[in-house]
Amino acid sequence: MVAIFLRSLVFNILFYLLLAFWVVVGIPTYLMPRWAIINIAKYWGQSSIWLMRLICNTKVEFRGLENIPAGPLIVASKHQSMWETFALLQFFDQPLYILKRELLWIPFFGWYLSKADMIGVDRGAGGRSVVDLTRRVGAEVRRGRQLIIFPEGTRTAVDAPPNYKSGVGHFYSDCAVPCVPVALNSGLFWPRRSFLRYPGTIVIEFLEPLPAGLPRKEFLARVSEAIETASNRLVDAGRNEQAQLFGRVPSRVPLKAKPPAA
Prior knowledge:
By secondary structure, this protein is an alpha/beta fold. It contains 7 helices and 7 strands. It has one domain: Glycerol-3-phosphate (1)-acyltransferase (3-Layer(aba) Sandwich). It has helices spanning 2-25, 34-56, 83-87, 109-115, 127-142, 167-175, 216-246, and strands at 58-63, 73-77, 95-100, 119-121, 146-149, 179-184, 200-206. Strands 1-7-6-2-5-3-4 form a 7-stranded mixed sheet, sandwiched between helices.
């Protein structure tokens, strides 16, 4: 564990130095079209993945890339870690995130988010804000963008009961585009609220797209079932790999799924 701590320390220092480097490199993109800052973000994500492999011996495997259709799209991903927020960027030419409005106020970093036309939301604004958000997201997706959304709304621990929100269903119904579910096991290697980074193989799997036009309740049931089933499978495989690395199988708390919100 001492080696893991030291590797994690080095990685975290270099990770934020790398972020600062790309922030500086990206300054000219303030005067360029949106695609320029999106490319900078992709380079940051790819270089961070490379750094984690180099320092922490954390490899990455991407599966199901053939399941990503071209054009406007909703990408509904499991969210266990900060890792997937930047790792997913590289596969989409016009990615769109919904994020806390306060992030847009961070000097330089927040300004880049604004330049990239990401959508900030005031979570305490009530129903009128939800209507406005749905309208804005729909307009952006219909312009050809790919909405990357985490249906549970926040990062969840690997063994936490899933709690899917209704928001993804509203966007799906309004946008009338396919949805690609995404499963992963990143929380085993970059745990939420933890300093440590663990060796092994992060797997991210793009599942078979759900077609546009499904009834909202059916969509919510199918997307949550697809993500949870595949993510549990990937977590089990990841734990088996960790058992080989550390000599034991970490304990697992059984999942008790909550029904998706209507």
